[in-house]
Amino acid sequence: MRHTRRASGIIAITLATTTGLTACGFGGGTDEGDGGEGTTLDLLVPSYSDATQANWEGVIAGFEEANPEITVNLEVESWDNLESVIATKIQGGQAPDIYNGGPFAGFAADELLYPVEDVTSDATYADFQESFLSNAEVDGVAYGLPFIASARALFVNDALLAQAGAEVPTTWDGLLESAKKVSALGGGIAGYGMPLGSEEAQAEAAVWLWGGGGSFGDADAITIDTPENLAGAEFIQKMVTEGATQADAGSTDRSPLMDIFIQGQIGMQVGLPPTVGQIEENNPELEYSIHPIPTQDGSPFTLGVADHLMAFENDGDKQEAITAFFDYFYTSDVYVPWVQAEGFLPTTKSGAEVLGDEESLAPFLAVLPDAQFYPSTNPSWSTADSAFKALFGQLATGKTAADVLTEIQSQVDAG
């Protein structure tokens, strides 16, 4: 899945450019497989920022120093080119040994990838957050190594809530009560920022529908019009009709709405880790805090997004070298600096522990074990994603919640 099409994805988190940064192509060095000197691993990765190539070169330099018998041949591509590059390489019988991308289910179905357990030590495998590792499975087998993570949390304008005499909520009912108190302050202030516009309607939908015990389905079936999802959709309408949100919630996009929060005009809104930096840059005097997303019953939950590393089997003669690279990379003193440099969250337990003292990241790290994910391994997810963006905002314009969910489901079923 190209990140230019994934509005809630990692590209939005890094706030970085994704122009092409192409390093040397594959083909350099000798390749004698495991057990022989001169083993070469071909590594194909996307550019997350202008620093991505240098960040990887630093990792590779350290790995090659520790493993002088292995050379890593790096190729960096833009996200726009990545899918066509990997497809061309596979068709030409030149798949990389290690690949950093989003979707992996198709490669697994074609039996091109090593299972993660075959290319990691027991310690490395056990260090992944279970929720992210489960999201990397096809038919119960993990084929993608969880690489970088995103999570969401509730940003709270502490000054507005104090002025309104409102408490930080943990449940939907508490959120409604506190948001209505903040909205009652007047002056254009909104209690809760509800972005149901096309930019990221699927993300706000997940916040509410999943927060009520629903889901969007799994790898086998996309299920939108369910009783569990209806509960969340109906509560969205309750928030809107009772004046707890901004005006025109059905057409408001997340990014401009978050700008309004940053300027101090919204009491609460779900945001991402980069929001911390945006506040520091644009309104450092804002009195705010970060908390878990309220759910129907207060159970912990966050919307997670992850990219993956994966290992192609090719001739099957580089398994040991690939394992050595992954075990080296995922040590906390190598992995955590890479994650920090690119502005992500770690997918490992040890990484979360190292960054646990980072006050701005702590709320996001705390909810990573409870992350839930889009059913991106289902071929129909892209249709569902588009349907949410086009139709979900109707919840704020008078259409019944049941009809909105039914219409989205119909589009998914029609393909």
From TrEMBL:
A cellular component term, taken from the record's GO annotations: ATP-binding cassette (ABC) transporter complex, substrate-binding subunit-containing
PROSITE patterns xref list: PROKAR_LIPOPROTEIN (PS51257)
TM region positions: none
InterPro entries the record matches: SBP
Keyword Signal: yes
Pfam family of the protein (one): SBP_bac_1
Name of the protein: Extracellular solute-binding protein
